[in-house]
Amino acid sequence: MNKTITILRHGEAEPLSDSDANRELTDYGLQGSRSAANTLADFLSVDQHLDVIFHSPFKRTKQTAFALLQDLSHTGNRLDVPCLPSDLLLENATPKLLTNWLDQLDMNHIVLVSHQPLVSRLVAWLVDGVSADSQDYNEYFFYPASMMVIETDFIARGCGSIRLTHHFKRQY
Questions:
Q1: pTM for the whole thing?
Q2: Would you say 136 and 130 are in contact if contact means Cβ atoms under 8 Å apart?
Q3: Does the pLDDT at position 145 exceed 90?
């Protein structure tokens, strides 16, 4: 069975708040999340759907996940996709722990909304088999609201391939 993992970094967040966990998306961050949703909607075929969207418990990742879900629903995709928080998507988590968890889920298309450097480390782990403690993940740098879609026969180190890349970079 082919599995698809969409990895999305949260949209641009406000620089200051009472805590890092409470930082909200800027208007530009919402725009980036919508851009990612449009790219993902174009990628999904008529018979494909998302099984779940997981996000870190931080406010900006939750906002990104729900903006993604809302915009996907406007393109005719399923509206009943669960959007759930997971502490495994905090930036200090390891790709190995995360992939062990994902491998146990009986789902075909999982979306993960998380933070740098975890999103870059996870792609490097899944695609190139880069060690979790290595610093060799910069090839897969994610700007806010950037996304990669990885396909794999099973979720394990070095077994995935990139099917889609979406970068959303502020133009100054």
A1: 0.92
A2: yes
A3: yes
User: Which token pair is 16?
Assistant: 């200051």
Asked whether residue 37 carries a pLDDT value surpassing 70, the answer given is: yes
Band of residue 48 on the pLDDT scale cut at 50, 70, 90: confident
Phi/psi at 57 (5° precision): -75, 0
pLDDT at position 47 = 65
HEC sequence for 99-164: HHHHHCCCCCEEEEEECCCHHHHHHHHHHHCCCCCCCCCHHHCCCCCCEEEEEECCCCCCCEEEEE
Task: Give the whole-angstrom CA distance, residue 41 versus residue 76.
Answer: 9
- Tokens 């009943």 belong to residue: 80
CA 111 to CA 129: how far, in whole Å?
20
Q: Tell whether the model's pLDDT for residue 171 goes beyond 80.
A: no
Provide the 3-class DSSP secondary structure of residue 89: helix
- Asked whether the CA dihedral 140, 152, 162, 76 is positive or negative, the reply is negative
